Target: Methionine ABC transporter ATP-binding protein
Amino acid sequence: MIQLQNITKKYKTANGELTAVKDVNLSINKGEIFGIIGYSGAGKSTMIRLLNGLEKPTSGTVKVNNQEFSAISGQKLRDARQKVSMIFQHFNLLWSRTVAENIAFPLEIAGVPKAQRDARVKELIALVGLEGRDTAYPSQLSGGQKQRVGIARALANNPEVLLCDEATSALDPETTDAILDLLVDINERLGLTIVLITHEMHVIRKICHRVAVMEAGEVVESGEVLQVFQAPQADITKKFVSQITDTKETQETVAQLKAHYPTGQLIKLVFVGEKTEQPVISQLVKKFDVEVSIVHGNISQTKNGPYGTLIVQVDGSHENVSAALNYLNTVEVQTEVIVNVD
Ligand SMILES: Nc1ncnc2c1ncn2[C@@H]1O[C@H](COP(=O)(O)OP(=O)(O)OP(=O)(O)O)[C@@H](O)[C@H]1O
Model:
């Protein structure tokens, strides 16, 4: 659906030339939810503007829905852009228009007759769960409801691609999850391709099939979300993954554990996919003469399967603990010794 080939985007600034995006190659499949994650200044917004045809690359080609955005302009580009829609962090609603009028706006611009417009607006209001709020003004809506209006408006002209620019960054965690669930629902029901940019790994973990990690204009790592969680390569990816696995709460727990477990080893086990269902811990106790205490654990779902971490204390003779650790590696459970107290 989307192909970016050797994309570089340079800007001229007062301090000379600045490379915002550097030699990026990406291929996004039809019907996929693809996330681009990076910190501020990584080049995410520039990527979005390249994908919606608002910017042309300095070099390289951008192909969306079989149209080479980087090579067309004028009416041809405007027509092609009809198939690429967008939602925003701050919703960008028209404040003097009601919910229904906001959603109708792109239909008016496209010249859809009133009766047809009204029917479509009704359909979209139901799709995003805003029944009964059609005459409300944006100022009377919660953040989550405003984003629902944004989503309905973006879907009005049946786009092929929905671009989400930090779409949940202004929302609280619960509302974020509700909006993410709505995006998954739309993706599955309509087969819509979704590309989102974010600085939050939670968003990637919860709804994306694949992810690209950006740093200083470059894609430093990309792949299936679960794989990236299991074996992050770049330092920045490890940092993003630790947003989920190594929260402040976990760090505090580990600090307490170090103080309270004077013997044995504290080991972090990482389980992915079907490995989360294996009876690894009971096998460990059965096969080796070690004592295992579970001290902390969590499990989260990704689109490609579950991902869990478990911190255990393994106590026993040095040989037995080593043998137990070797065994864990044979069952493809990733292990990390957090603290060796022996
Ligand atoms: N129109 C522009 N002219 C000059 N420099 C720009 C322009 N747009 C972006 N940049 C620069 O390009 C780099 C990447 O910016 P970009 O906005 O794409 O990053 P980002 O990851 O989206 O960050 P943020 O989330 O803060 O917007 C930054 O150094 C930025 O200052």
Summary: The mean pLDDT is 89. The chain has two domains: 2-244, 246-340. The pocket of adenosine-5'-triphosphate is lined by residues 11, 13, 18, 20, 38, 40-46 (CB under 6 Å). The domain at 246-340 is CATH 3.30.70.260 (Alpha-Beta Plaits).
